[in-house]
Amino acid sequence: MSPLEPFGARLRHAMDARGPLCVGIDPHEALLSAWGLDDDVRGLERFTRTVIDALAGRVAVFKPQSAFFERFGSRGIAVLERAVADLRDAGALVVMDAKRGDIGSTMSAYAETFLRKDAPLFADALTVSPYLGYGSLKPAVDLARESGCGLFVLALTSNPEGAEVQRAVRAEDPAGRTVAATVLAHLAADNAGEAPLGSFGAVVGATLGDLSSFDLDINGPLLAPGIGAQGATPADLPAVFGEAVRNVVPSVSRGVLRHGPDTAALRASAERYADEVRAAIGA
């Protein structure tokens, strides 16, 4: 598969081949402790290496949370750099969960950190925040197109606090759309005409219940955190995402990682989630 093929096409191929699942890599202190590891760089590296060895060749998408590596400084970032390279070498796609958002040259620098092909942290996609205005993301959108990468833009997040911004109605919008609906409309425009799937996706929580009042048909992927420890199940996906469910990238972190460090248990859990998602969405 050419690295220049757009992210949306690569994502569709990966999920068809390996199953519709994204595994988050979130090495927070409690999880390291549960694995019998110290909360230090050695523990971080052992944890990350175990996840990669167990799952990199089997799971379609991984979502490392940058903050859990950044908290260890440069040595933690070095672990993340190696993890991203090893995951991609194993044929998996990497979504860097960094939720970057800024304007102008600063947004360009964030984009170059994660979306420039020769960057140490080059990933297949990046999570970004649109709350300085969707147009502020243009440097990331442009570089993603150039590099064959994707973006996942925060739209309808699962945290309760998100609603006060995301579901606010824009008074200046003649249609009276919410902020989230505006973000989704921008994404649909950026994905127009792309096949089999656009490269610009939305982050939409799997725990949110009926979202039929929002147009989720953006011709792009819908990254859906909240399955597993946060309470959502694969069986909930059709009710939440409706006709757009085929484009959902369900994300599970603790639901899989709590079974480590046993390699067989990690693999069994990931396979079970992927099978349950296939059954739920009719894939």
TrEMBL record:
Identification of the protein by name: Orotidine 5'-phosphate decarboxylase
GO terms, molecular function: orotidine-5'-phosphate decarboxylase activity
Domain of life (superkingdom): Bacteria
Record HAMAP family: OMPdecase_type2
Organism: Streptomyces lavendofoliae
Entries under NCBIfam families matching the protein: pyrF_sub2 (TIGR02127)
InterPro entries: Aldolase_TIM (IPR013785), OMPdecase_AS (IPR018089), OMPdecase_type-2 (IPR011995), OMPdeCOase_dom (IPR001754), RibuloseP-bd_barrel (IPR011060)
Cited Gene3D superfamilies: Aldolase class I
